[in-house]
Hints:
CATH architecture of the largest domain in chain A: 3-Layer(aba) Sandwich
Bound molecules: NADPH dihydro-nicotinamide-adenine-dinucleotide phosphate
Strand order of the largest sheet of chain A: 3-2-1-4-5-6
Organism (chains A, B, C, D): Allosphingosinicella indica
Number of domains of chain A: 2
GO biological process, one term (chains A, B, C, D): organic acid catabolic process
Protein name (chains A, B, C, D): 3-hydroxyisobutyrate dehydrogenase
Family (chains A, B, C, D): Belongs to the HIBADH-related family.
Order of helices and strands of chain A: EHEHEHEHEHEEHEHEHHHHHH
Keywords (chains A, B, C, D): NAD, Oxidoreductase
Oligomer: homotetramer
Number of helices of chain A: 13
Largest sheet of chain A: 6 strands, parallel
Shape of chain A: elongated
Distance between the termini of chain A: 53 Å
Strand content of chain A: 5-15%
CATH class of the largest domain in chain A: Alpha Beta
Amino acid sequence: MARIAFLGLGVMGAPMARHLAAAGHSLVVHNRSPEKARAWVQAHGGSHAATPAAAAGGADAVIACVGTDEDVDRVTQGPDGAFRNMSAGTLFIDHTTVSARIARKIAEAGRRQGIACVDAPVSGGQAGAENGTLAAMCGGTEEAIGAARPLMEAYSARIVHVGPDGAGQLTKMVNQIAIAGVLQGLSEAVHFTKAAGLDPDKVLEAVSGGAAQSWQMVNRWDTMMRGEFDFGFAIDWMRKDLGLALDEARRNGASLPMAALVDQFYAEVQAMGGARQDTSALVRRLNE
Amino acid sequence: MARIAFLGLGVMGAPMARHLAAAGHSLVVHNRSPEKARAWVQAHGGSHAATPAAAAGGADAVIACVGTDEDVDRVTQGPDGAFRNMSAGTLFIDHTTVSARIARKIAEAGRRQGIACVDAPVSGGQAGAENGTLAAMCGGTEEAIGAARPLMEAYSARIVHVGPDGAGQLTKMVNQIAIAGVLQGLSEAVHFTKAAGLDPDKVLEAVSGGAAQSWQMVNRWDTMMRGEFDFGFAIDWMRKDLGLALDEARRNGASLPMAALVDQFYAEVQAMGGARQDTSALVRRLNE
Amino acid sequence: MARIAFLGLGVMGAPMARHLAAAGHSLVVHNRSPEKARAWVQAHGGSHAATPAAAAGGADAVIACVGTDEDVDRVTQGPDGAFRNMSAGTLFIDHTTVSARIARKIAEAGRRQGIACVDAPVSGGQAGAENGTLAAMCGGTEEAIGAARPLMEAYSARIVHVGPDGAGQLTKMVNQIAIAGVLQGLSEAVHFTKAAGLDPDKVLEAVSGGAAQSWQMVNRWDTMMRGEFDFGFAIDWMRKDLGLALDEARRNGASLPMAALVDQFYAEVQAMGGARQDTSALVRRLNE
Amino acid sequence: MARIAFLGLGVMGAPMARHLAAAGHSLVVHNRSPEKARAWVQAHGGSHAATPAAAAGGADAVIACVGTDEDVDRVTQGPDGAFRNMSAGTLFIDHTTVSARIARKIAEAGRRQGIACVDAPVSGGQAGAENGTLAAMCGGTEEAIGAARPLMEAYSARIVHVGPDGAGQLTKMVNQIAIAGVLQGLSEAVHFTKAAGLDPDKVLEAVSGGAAQSWQMVNRWDTMMRGEFDFGFAIDWMRKDLGLALDEARRNGASLPMAALVDQFYAEVQAMGGARQDTSALVRRLNE
Ligand SMILES: NC(=O)C1=CN([C@@H]2O[C@H](COP(=O)(O)OP(=O)(O)OC[C@H]3O[C@@H](n4cnc5c(N)ncnc54)[C@H](OP(=O)(O)O)[C@@H]3O)[C@@H](O)[C@H]2O)C=CC1
Ligand SMILES: NC(=O)C1=CN([C@@H]2O[C@H](COP(=O)(O)OP(=O)(O)OC[C@H]3O[C@@H](n4cnc5c(N)ncnc54)[C@H](OP(=O)(O)O)[C@@H]3O)[C@@H](O)[C@H]2O)C=CC1
Ligand SMILES: NC(=O)C1=CN([C@@H]2O[C@H](COP(=O)(O)OP(=O)(O)OC[C@H]3O[C@@H](n4cnc5c(N)ncnc54)[C@H](OP(=O)(O)O)[C@@H]3O)[C@@H](O)[C@H]2O)C=CC1
């Protein structure tokens, strides 16, 4: 069993850390707002530290699930960052969805200190984190991912080593691009179904078994029809992720017309008050 | 067992008629280009007729799977149309993907003659027709669909009665709208994967189990990656279908920005020579 | 001076007919709702007729400015259509914005009767019609346009013979396509100006002299900023025109992604109650 | 007459500096690649300096026209930046198109040192710079712009004080957003004109006087028709500028669907080799 520092106890991080503790690892947790760390320790044991550096002292592995590029930068390489206190032979796993650029920068810094780094953004959402059934898309060396895998298995149903440093983040971008198209198509399908006066249940029954099927159709059709959006993966996060993909596309030369358009449509839903709602709230700009 | 007139022996119609014959029904077939009808009879028995009207004489049910609104109009109500020769108490099933307007017009004409009409466009493609696993989305009265169901079961795995006359066609539009979004998202995902230099198999493994999953992703990712498009559902048909949806939206007030955009992107693929290629060839305008 | 039958006394037709009367021509007018025709005669002299055919009897030229393809078809070739009563050597000018297909069909019918036909949709709007400063974009033979020109000069500042039958209509489509792009760009510029908290007058002063300049910017910036839209060219008409362009593009293979998208955005403005508002109300879906 | 340090002698900067010298000011120029500075001095007199700081020593005003946010940051606040060597009471004018954020950051730094700062991106392109007829859209205090105006008049036909620090940059974004819409509309109009087989000269004559008119239509229609794009404002710069607008919109909440889409279409033209071509090369993705 390993000594693990876990940084970031939000919607995703808290249940991930819980699964690690339940698996028998010994945890020191840290969170920007310390009350979350205190509450977590009260509920799940272990201890909490005031800074990433303090948490990392003596750890075999440091795992982060914070918010943005800046957050990851700060918790790793900031003045109180974990890297200040990590020794050669340790492991760093980042589950935050960030740019490939920062993932490579961290891996580079890790290499200089002998820290093995894995960029491993996840899909599966809050439910996946709670149930320990996340999918982790991983970038890094074979060895780094080999070392990380037993830890990640505590909360992941699927762990795929896609490629070198940053490949995990790039794969997450592919994931979000595909989702953007699915959701805009689904939003228009829902909107048209209503405008045409069709029975939504019958339509779903008729179309969900064939070429139009998608995870989103199976899991979001009913809530979109009822206008329920206060759950799931927040539009603010989705815009962050689409922004990462669009930035990366600027570098690699890809053209992403639909992703760019949907990103702007999300701006309209944010303006309608939907920033914290599930990405399926994309339909709101058509239905309201 | 019923006496059935089958009109239209194309990619879809020929195998549907074959399943009916195999189920023991007695068939008279008709096709615009008579050689297809002759060949079908040679292979599967029954007889062929020179006109829809001739085929319909004495039939319990007339089933059509032709091309467009004009085609359906002609085979039902044209000078040699089937309706000239159908008596009260018979059944007309249309599997062509057409407008809701023409479906309602035919049902109206049927009502005057005592012919029960079902609009029942299908999904599942050529493979579904060959294997008898189509999904039929049906509009019409409870009785009409009740009468049609045993016949359609010869080639359908799923038969859903969605609503009144035209509801089948409207549901097919919903289906195509959803597919358009899925395919544009998937095209950009494929394109980005290549631009980013990722291993396509690893990416698929990582993303196909979660929120980005779709039938198209599972069934088209590999062929899109390899640039194989000479199979499946033709772009020409897809543009016809999106055109039907966009026309209907003009009437019911729905806004379909993505469907409209993808329809234009398909024009670009047609200009690249892709008119007869599978709808997944949408990726060609990004990759070439 | 000529004997002219004028069909359609709407926002555009009434002032056009008035300019013809003022130029000394003798007019018989007809309008679907007869009260408009009676009112026009009361104000401007001449006489009115109950049907297009009646109006056309004895006329040297018949000029139409009605609504849609169906309307033009009816007033020319319907049971009471003008063509029933026109003799060889007369002239037909159509100012309605319609499809190139119907323009060609009418010209073809005209040719069989010895009627010279001109398709001459106009730009310049209500103001252009009132002031007699319209621009007419014309399709037809050199002779037909030569004959039509002196009449059209009564209300046109610019008359361009673009090409054969239908070329006038196709040119009008080009015009509307260009406008759609300009207006969406301008809408986003206005919206961004507000979101950025800039002084609209200063911004207009800074940008209206250069590469971003457009007729719409010069003439609509202020009203868009103030949210005034109850004037000008109605969105319902614009959608009809974009529909004509998109239909024609289906035939000629052009891809019009932006026109298709803006057409859908207009559906959103129609749903907001903007159907009769000026096309610049496109900004409403961003600003409200 | 003033002592002026001019930083950045590219397509825009070199002629701007030339106009200043011609107006009698005394210039010290600096450019990243020193050969441009040497050549400029050979042609127009003055002297050149190895670093921005060296150029700025003793200057009354420092004027920059470099490339990006990073470039402006470096030439002002980098280790060899001009601000190291500027004294209270001097003036800094930035003609580079950059973010409002960096403009505000520089103004803030200027304020601490008593340097008056103006963000003054320009429009008018290379021709405007050569002919001294640029339009400068300015952000800053009344005093700063008052001081800058006489210098900028050497190469500007129009100078508008739009608002506080950053307002010049925000106005330039408005300009580019409007242009993006105009150019996509125009590209589709050009493409449709060709697909419809119309005479481009006649079409231009017919549509350029009315509601579809734009600077781009008047100045680019012919070259777009002929496929000439090796001049003008480069697509690489346009994507930078649209990127700035889209980034700013993320902050101010604006939705820019068309700007986002056109930005991606430009990626397609870059992939076709159009990175250095005029922005009107947007039509290439439709015509080729
Ligand atoms: N929610 C979801 O469904 C999914 C989220 N993700 C990604 O996972 C990441 C986390 O998402 P989620 O858990 O929902 O977000 P939350 O905002 O709920 O959690 C982020 C946590 O990180 C902490 N944090 C941020 N910065 C720092 C810092 N510098 N030092 C210490 N702690 C810090 C925050 O602290 P504080 O309490 O102070 O805010 C917060 O508790 C994001 O990148 C997101 O895109 C990926 C897949 C699904
Ligand atoms: N292909 C697919 O994967 C799917 C197709 N569809 C829909 O099913 C319909 C048929 O598609 P598909 O089978 O692929 O098309 P095909 O073109 O292969 O078949 C259409 C058949 O109808 C015949 N036909 C057309 N008009 C007439 C007429 N007036 N009188 C007699 N026969 C006529 C044609 O004859 P001829 O031999 O002279 O051309 C042809 O054999 C379309 O509406 C399509 O959108 C729906 C789902 C999937
Ligand atoms: N071109 C146009 O039509 C218009 C351009 N603009 C904007 O004006 C700016 C300049 O454009 P343009 O002149 O065309 O671009 P160029 O690339 O031709 O010129 C930029 C110049 O700045 C120099 N430079 C860049 N960074 C530094 C640095 N750190 N230190 C010293 N010199 C530096 C470059 O040096 P080096 O020789 O080493 O590359 C180059 O000479 C851009 O922001 C552009 O968006 C605005 C309106 C129109």
